[in-house]
Amino acid sequence: MAYPMQLGFQDATSPIMEELLHFHDHTLMIVFLISSLVLYIISLMLTTKLTHTSTMDAQEVETIWTILPAIILILIALPSLRILYMMDEINNPSLTVKTMGHQWYWSYEYTDYEDLSFDSYMIPTSELKPGELRLLEVDNRVVLPMEMTIRMLVSSEDVLHSWAVPSLGLKTDAIPGRLNQTTLMSSRPGLYYG
């Protein structure tokens, strides 16, 4: 759960979110190093009066500043592609939950069981109890097992919606007439808002 004035991501609850956090840190370090190098070069150029004209025209320098960015882009792209593949992979789900977005509520149906469906409405601000979170509390929560692969089928009845749980690293669009699919697995028990 996020807390007020938080600067980083929420704590990871799924293996996918852990991978996303590692990728974020990896990419941020590359961006930090590039920014530091560029700032250092700019400060040198502004403070130094001496220029060496033969290095400005050198073929080796042009080759380096052409090949080095390509290598950096590969170092960013390969982990990104691996995570995209992991997010799209479905491994024999133990449970399937169908989620339908409506104008002001979500409908959930456990498709592996007969007649197990319910609607989840947001609790109005005037009816909240102390300690409950405004715009996040609902009357019927979705209960899912941990350490099991769960397939979520997400669609909408009326307009575009977004079904998201940040601590699990999930965000899927609910589009009318289209059935989107995502997989989740929680590695620890808890109450996760989205």
Secondary-structure map with pairings?
Blueprint (H helix, E strand, L loop, with lengths): L14 H33 L5 H4 L2 H30 L6 E7 L3 E6 L6 E5 L28 E7 L4 E5 L4 E5 L5 E5 L10
Parallel strand pairs: 1-4
Antiparallel strand pairs: 1-2, 2-3, 4-7, 5-6
Molecular structure report:
By secondary structure, this protein is an alpha+beta fold. It folds into two domains: 13-48 and 56-86, Orthogonal Bundle (Helix Hairpins); 93-182, Sandwich (Immunoglobulin-like), CATH 2.60.40.420. The chain has three helices and seven strands; from the N terminus they run H-H-H-E-E-E-E-E-E-E. It has helices spanning 15-47, 53-56, 59-88; strands at residues 95-101, 105-110, 117-121, 150-156, 161-165, 170-174, 180-184. A five-stranded mixed sheet has the order 3-2-1-4-7, with no helix packed on it. Strands 5-6 form a two-stranded antiparallel sheet. A hairpin with a 3-residue loop joins strand 1 (95-101) and strand 2. It is elongated. The protein starts with 14 loop residues before the first helix and ends in a 10-residue tail after the last strand. 12% of the residues are buried.
CATH class of the largest domain: Mainly Beta
Under CATH, the homologous superfamily of the largest domain reads Cupredoxins -  blue copper proteins
Helical content, roughly?
Answer: 25-40%
Estimated structural class: alpha+beta
Strand order of the largest sheet: 3-2-1-4-7
Q: Cα distance, first to last residue?
A: 9 Å
Strand % is 15-25%
Task: Look up the CATH topology of the largest domain.
Answer: Immunoglobulin-like
| Average pLDDT figure | 89
Sheet with the most strands, sense and barrel status:
5 strands, mixed
Reading the helices and strands in chain order gives HHHEEEEEEE
CATH architecture term of the largest domain: Sandwich
Q: Determine the number of helices (DSSP H or I, runs of at least 4 residues).
A: 3
Unreliable stretches (pLDDT < 50, length at least 5) are none
User: What's the shape?
Assistant: elongated
Per DSSP E runs of 2 or more residues, the count of β-strands stands at: 7
